[in-house]
Amino acid sequence: MDGIRIISGLENILRYCLAGMLGVWATVSFFVFLINWETWFFGIKLDGLPAGLYLFAKAVVAALLAYATMRYPRKIFLTSIMALLYFGFLFIESAWTIQKNTHGQHLFSGIMAFCLVVPLVLIIVHRIAESRTGS
Hints:
By secondary structure, this protein is mainly α.
């Protein structure tokens, strides 16, 4: 019985971490959208309207995922999969840009790797909790 409580507690902690990361990512993207319409997309510098649309889309998707993570805890598996896809896209996109701009000196961002690992661990913990409780 203690194992189930520990796993469900870990699942809740990871859910709050994921929601917090998505909230921070939404805030940062929206802040950059408001202040400076410039960003990188797969090694290509965007500015003006294309950059604004991309930054706004990143902010809205992150905000919606953060909302869904907190509002629908029973759908955490689906939300975690969507967050994994979101952060996976951002990881690949940022790694591509980092490699292009540093001429291969750096491979990827550690922060983006961490953002990619959290939903993955949450999916694993959720599946373990699901198998233990049978729900």
